[in-house]
Amino acid sequence: MRLRVIAVAAVAALSMSAAAGAATGIHRFIGVRGVANLDCEIAAGVPGLGTFVYCLRAPTPANAVSVQMSAAGKLSICHGTKCMSNPPDNVTMLRQGQSLKAGPFRCTAEKTAIRCLVTKLGHGFLIGPHGLTRL
């Protein structure tokens, strides 16, 4: 949670536009149309923040779930109101099938969820209305 607060505070100075193949910076995005309350960020090589993927699915505060994944594929998972945070501004909406790549990560918008992987390891997660699934 602390890293999320730092990341949101750093967005103005470190933000880059979300573009496929982008290598460094912070990239904020949301999933496909029709899936509300799902937002993610990828930080790749950001001074003071490092490299990670963070996603939050919060249909209600009590049902919130967030996940942060390291470049090594380690997941840190949070459930409930303590996971809540404000979504970032100026996010890009990914179309179904569209991917965003940054550092070692690739996140892809599926029909109703976001799938994020450490590409070389094949480890990651799927987050959407169903909740969170480790991959």
- Tell me the series of helices and strands, N- to C-terminal: HEEEEEEEEEEE
Kindly state the percentage of residues in helix. under 10%
Structurally, how many domains make up the residues?
1
Largest sheet: 6 strands, mixed
User: What portion of residues belong to β-strands?
Assistant: 35-45%
Name the shape in a single word.
globular
Mean pLDDT across all amino acids: 80
Give the termini separation: 22 Å
According to DSSP, the number of beta strands is: 11
Number of helices: 1
Q: Which quaternary structure do these chains form?
A: single chain
Residue runs with pLDDT of under 50 for 5 or more positions: 1-21
Radius of gyration: 13 Å
Structural class by helix and strand composition = mainly beta
Strands across the major sheet, in which order? 5-4-3-2-1-6
Task: Write a concise synopsis of the structure shown.
It contains one helix and eleven strands; from the N terminus they run αβββββββββββ. The chain has one helix spanning 2-14; strands at 25-30, 38-46, 50-57, 65-70, 75-79, 92-93, 99-102, 105-109, 114-118, 123-128, 131-134.
